[in-house]
Amino acid sequence: MDRFEAMQIFVRVVEARSFSKASDMMNLSPAKVSRTVHLLEERVGVRLLNRSTRSVGVTEDGALFYGRCVRILAEVADAEGLLTKDRRTPSGTVRVDTSAMLARALLLPRLGEFYARYPDIDVRLGLGDRNIDLFQDGVDCVVRMGVIGDASLIARQIGRASIVTCAAPSYIARNGTPRSLDELRAHHAINYVSARTRKSYPFEYRVNDDIVRVDMRSTLAVNDGSTYISAGVLGYGLIQPSRFMVAEHIARGELQEILTNCESPSTPVSLVFPHRRNLSPRLRAFSEWVSDVAQDHPDLQGV
Fold this sequence. Notes:
This protein is α/β, with parallel strands linked by helices.
């Protein structure tokens, strides 16, 4: 048994959660994939996978072994990349998932520069604030805001987004401007509900060394970032978005920052990969470019 090939096959089975899918992805026979994993389990002396008629799941020992295999395969890929990355021009397709708001505010304004630098790379953006399976959906990376809760993924933080509390002039004209957190509780907000977690986000503020969360009264809740900001511009309530997403609305006077004396905690912006294994030159090029864009943005705190 080739142990290196066995690790590759095992990792692919774990990621695909299926022997048949792994065999298709690797262009190997199902019998070879199954036999290789069986021999690997015999060699290490523990069960690595739980098999059923419907799915394949990793055992506790298998999860530990998977993590070590991923690191070993990544080191090999990195070593090979040292010899090849400067000898060819990156080309091909990079599949990226992100939210429509992040694409519109962060990526699209600078994407022309990326194409000028890498004309042979085709970027395909999937837009949506939802849970995706990077393995099953064939996504190379995700550009996402917020804390990444899945420990099996590799997250590279590229910035921190400043958070502001805003209101439309029409809302302020009707309801006045809150000057403190106590006054804020008497106002109405537009609640943002995450399509991924289905939870409503409270307004957050840093008071001394503590984070104070204010659950706002609301008659409108949305789960789309563009709609959330549009509803704020129309005066349906207070909103608390990332500043870089509303900077143009603030500049045009469509939204006004309020409670500027109350700091809100920033939120991380990250690149998320299914693993460090086999990062292609085109994906490395895209990730470095996105990191540079985030570092240059005036409303993102660099890391």
